[in-house]
Amino acid sequence: KAGVTQTPRYLIKTRGQQVTLSCSPISGHRSVSWYQQTPGQGLQFLFEYFSETQRNKGNFPGRFSGRQFSNSRSEMNVSTLELGDSALYLCASSWALAGGPNEQFFGPGTRLTVL
Amino acid sequence: AQSVTQLGSHVSVSEGALVLLRCNYSSSVPPYLFWYVQYPNQGLQLLLKYTSAATLVKGINGFEAEFKKSETSFHLTKPSAHMSDAAEYFCAVMGENTDKLIFGTGTRLQVFP
């Protein structure tokens, strides 16, 4: 069974540009969450999607957005990139069964470098 | 608000020695607690989880953790460290009716021969 896949694995952008990251969850998983990992701030929750609806949002500026498609695949977008957006962006998926807790399966991440 | 605190950003042990990684939680309700491991340039892998079924939880690769409500702790242990255990370990808490994980700051484990 294929795991969570994220594309691209590595990305280099310059300040002011925008970027779109993609996440394909494990087949059958209905929930997708995104996290940002930096040396300074650690692992921080960005957002969670379930059935194409944002269910939870972390404390990030509006430049960070996401969406989920009907096949559960998800994308996140960062507009007007800043140097501080350089990070490893991790995607996680789960079955999203009622009653919880739902084990989160993580992808390998996308390493974004902003120059 | 829920949170977890990991004591010690770096832990070094000799191969064969006991591994003890500390995690304390703050939660107004019984929490769901997790330990994840991250190897270099990889995502996170679940080691074990506490969901109130049993206070002593056994995970993969010989790791286990004990939930102690009186101490608000969920420390991770392994009786005998192996070189392949060298990685970063994260404790996390999850609320009810959400998949959102709140992570600790992580502990980097070094294993010396």
How many strands, what sense, and barrel or not for the largest sheet of chain B? 6 strands, mixed
Shape field of chain B? globular
Order of helices and strands of chain B: EEEEEEEEEEE
This entry's quaternary arrangement is: heterodimer
Please report the distance between the alpha carbons of the first and last residues of chain B: 41 Å
Question: How many distinct helices of chain B?
Answer: 0
Number of helices of chain A: 0
What percent strand of chain A?
A: over 45%
What integer is the average pLDDT of chain A? 94
Q: What is the β-strand count of chain B?
A: 11
Label the overall shape of chain A: globular
Protein chains sharing the most extensive interface: A-B, 27 and 23 residues
Classify the secondary structure makeup of chain A into a structural class. mainly beta
Pairing-aware structural class of the strands and helices of chain B? mainly beta
Q: Over the alpha carbons, how many angstroms does the gyration radius of chain A reach?
A: 14 Å
* DSSP helix fraction of chain B: under 10%
What percent of residues of chain A adopt helix (DSSP H or I)?
Answer: under 10%
List low-pLDDT spans of chain B: none
Strand content of chain B: over 45%
What key phrases describe this protein's structure?
heterodimer, A: 115 residues, mainly beta, seven-stranded mixed beta sheet, globular, B: 113 residues, five-stranded antiparallel beta sheet, 0% helix
Tell me briefly what this model is.
The complex is a heterodimer of chains A (115) and B (113). Chain A has 115 residues and is mainly beta.
Report on the architecture of this protein.
By secondary structure, chain A is an all-beta fold. Chain A is 0% helix and 52% strand. Chain A is built from no helices and 11 strands. Chain B is mainly beta and 113 residues long. Chain B has strands spanning 3-7, 10-14, 19-26, 32-38, 44-50, 56-58, 64-68, 73-78, 87-94, 101-103, 107-112. The chains are: A mainly beta (115), B mainly beta (113). The A-B interface holds A 4, 31, 33, 35, 42-45, 48, 50, 55-56, 58, 90, 92, 94, 96, 100-109 and B 32, 36, 41-46, 49, 51, 90, 94, 96-106.
